[in-house]
Structures are given as structure tokens and as C-alpha cells.
Amino acid sequence: MSSIDAEKGNGHILLMTFDHMRLLRTGLLALVFLACRDKGNGTGDSARGSLPPVLPSGPASTTNWDIDAGPVMLVSLGNGTDSAAVVLPEVSDSTIASVQDTSAPVGGLVFDLFGRTGKLGSSKAVTGLRADSTQECYAWPLAAVRAASSGWRIGFASGHAQAIRLDSIEAMPSTDSASLAASLAQTAATLPIASDPTFRGLPFRVRSAYTFRLDSVDVVIADVVRSVNEEANPRLEHLLIIGERPARTSGKYSAGYYSRTAGPEETTQASEVLAAVRVGSLRKPAVIVSIEYDDGRKLGLIERTAPGEWHSIWRSAYTDC
Q: Which terminus has fewer CB within 10 Å in the chain: N or C?
């Protein structure tokens, strides 16, 4: 439910022009088409080949990916290695089966790498890796990333994103963090969400919150929760909120975006903020989130479309490897 420096290499600067990006984008769609056609001719009974492919009709795909963010996106696997998942934005839940066991066309590209603290450097090299064909699950193609710094979460093709540094509530002085938590509770309490008697009257708790300055406003991205602590049936409600208020003021934030999920504590969908960036030449503010399910996840892109307004414009295909 719901919310840049080109790197020098080998003596020259690698820049991706619009024509190059459009060519790579078209190549990715062709890869999906060919893979679907080949899998459709097979006779295997793999679970990964059981979903019927639904192909986009052309370069203007229905996934609503922002082309200004580049042709692909890297996501760190976070396992202490240099491996990354290569997210193909035009692939949907209906076509994810077609890219299993394929190599991502990322050779020669340079990526800028981001985390919640901003830009953490650029990739030295990105090389497509051979997929593990023995896994019966859905996964993105893999790549080896030679990164100068560790701890990065997201990578965009060089020149397509600029960093926004996020300040965590956990690193704030106690008075500031208490004030932020109180203002977020006020914001959450005034959201026009459907009344749920299960959580009515329970206090809000800030699970995570990040702030940054944007022009003349302060922006907060927060996961606010309420819980029912019944031993036999513990339940949890998550509210992902992006709010704004005039810079250097106090009080509650005006919610520009929110989404609500609720259910059993161990299976309730939650969202983790991976990074915030400015996208493309228009420098559109955007937040990248990982939407965590019980046994898999999606990636999401939430963009600021107008002052005080944020929209979830894209969600990736579901993966469960």
C-alpha cells in the first residue's frame, strides 16, 4: 500500500547521453521479450516459468518508472560482499519470471552509490554475474560492484541522481528527538485513515524517522507504529509518512504522503528507507524504500510532485530470493 559527478576511468569520463539511455532501455525490453519467448518454448515444469508473461507494448511501460532516474538501479545485497541486485524497472510481477537465469547488461556502466548519509562514492566497475539457476524463486540479475566505500544501499547510473543527506532521529539530541516524536504522533493522529477499532486509542511510537532540509521546508520520512500486545495474537500497524513544515518551525508536519499496513506482528508489511536523492536534471526529490513482506520484497520510488505533495510513482516486481 502505500512513499553527480561522472567518474573518471581509464583516462576518460563516462557520460550516459539520452540516446545511450534510450538504447539501453530498449535493449532491456528486448531482453525481456526474448527471454519470455525462449521460456515459452521450453517443456520444463519449473515454478519460475509458471507465470504467463505480459509484455509492455513499447518503451513507455506501465510500471511508471521515472526515465530521468536512469535505465537500471543497483541494490546492495547487504551481505558483506560486492554483489548487488540489478533492478530492471520495466519488469513487472507478470514478467519477472522471464529474467531469471539472465545476465544484466551493465558492463561498462559507472554507478553513483548512495545510502541514508548521502553519496558514498562511485563504482569502479560493474560486471554482470551468472545467476544461480538452482533457486526456485524470483530474483533480479546479479552484478559484481567494485565500490570505494562500503555501506551503500542504492546505485544509479552516473549523472542521474544527486545525494540528499538524511539525519536520523536516533542521532539527534534527546530534546530534539523527543520533540520530533511528539510532532509525528500529532501528524499520525490527524491522518484521514479508516477507523480500526483494534488500534483505537493506542499510543503511536516512532519506529524510525529521518529529516532533511528542502529549500524553505523541513521534510520528515517516518515509520510510525501502534501495537496490540496480546500474547496469543500480537498485531502491528505501520504508518509510513512523508511530511513537510516550514523550515525552523515546530509543531506537526503536514502529511504529503502516507500509507498504512496492519496485521499479525510477524507478517505485517513494513517499509525501510534506503536513501533519498534528487532525480535528473530537474532535481526532483525522491525517496527509495524497500517494502518488506513476510518472505520477499519490492522496491519503491516516492517522488515530490509539488510543494507538500509526494506520490508513490513506481514499485518494482516482487522478488523472494
A: N
C-alpha cell read off for 176: 530534539
Other C-beta atoms closer than 10 Å to the C-beta of 4 total 17
* Range with the poorest average pLDDT among 3-17, 80-94, 295-309: 3-17
Q: What is the pLDDT of residues 25-61, one digit of tens each?
A: 444 444 443 343 333 333 333 333 222 223 333 333 4
Does the pTM surpass 0.85? The reply is no
- Start-to-end Cα distance in the chain: 22
Which residue, chain included where needed, has cell 515509520?
223
Contact 189, 253 (CB under 8 A): no
* Residue whose C-alpha cell reads 562511485 in the numeric block: 122
CA–centroid distance for 28 within its chain:
20
Cell (9 digits) for 144:
559484481
Beta strands, E only, the chain: 8-9, 12-13, 73-76, 83-87, 111-115, 118-129, 142-147, 154-157, 161-164, 167-168, 205-214, 217-228, 235-246, 254-264, 270-279, 284-292, 297-306, 309-315
What are the backbone angles phi and psi of residue 78, rounded to the nearest 5°? 65, 30
